[in-house]
Write a structure and sequence with these properties.
Elements: H1 14-33, H2 37-51, H3 57-84, H4 91-110
Length: 126
């Protein structure tokens, strides 16, 4: 028995969880290539939410700071895009999102979710 008052399932959501994270990274890739800054940011936020349980408090703080830095720049970008009716490329925003994604990939890797660091492949999915 674990800390709960009932038996725990012998199954876990490891494969589903990894599939979801993979889908979100795919969405990031698609949004970045389409220069859809808002879609890219929202996909990155969704990845961050999935990684939150694996992050140390200082890592969470760093990610929260990055998101809080991006939000006003993204909002300005969206206002300019809506007013002009044209796709506006903000290089600063692009590189902030790029940096945010790289950091998330690093945390995904450190958590062993990117490339499993198990010696025995039988244990690779939990």
């Amino acid at each position: 028995m674990s800390g709960f008052d009932r038996d725990q399932s012998e199954w876990n959501m490891g494969a589903s969880y990894l599939n979801l994270i993979n889908s979100l990274y795919w969405s990031c890739c698609e949004s970045a290539m389409a220069m859809d800054m808002q879609g890219w940011f929202y996909s990155l936020q969704a990845i961050y939410r999935r990684l939150t349980p694996t992050l140390k408090p200082e890592e969470r703080e760093k990610m929260e700071h990055k998101m809080n830095t991006i939000i006003p720049i993204l909002n300005k970008h969206m206002r300019i895009t809506e007013k002009s009716g044209m796709k506006y490329i903000n290089n600063d925003l692009y590189y902030l999102l790029h940096s945010f994604e790289i950091d998330l990939m690093d945390y995904t890797d450190k958590a062993g979710l990117l490339i499993k660091k198990a010696n025995d492949p039988r244990f690779a999915l939990g």
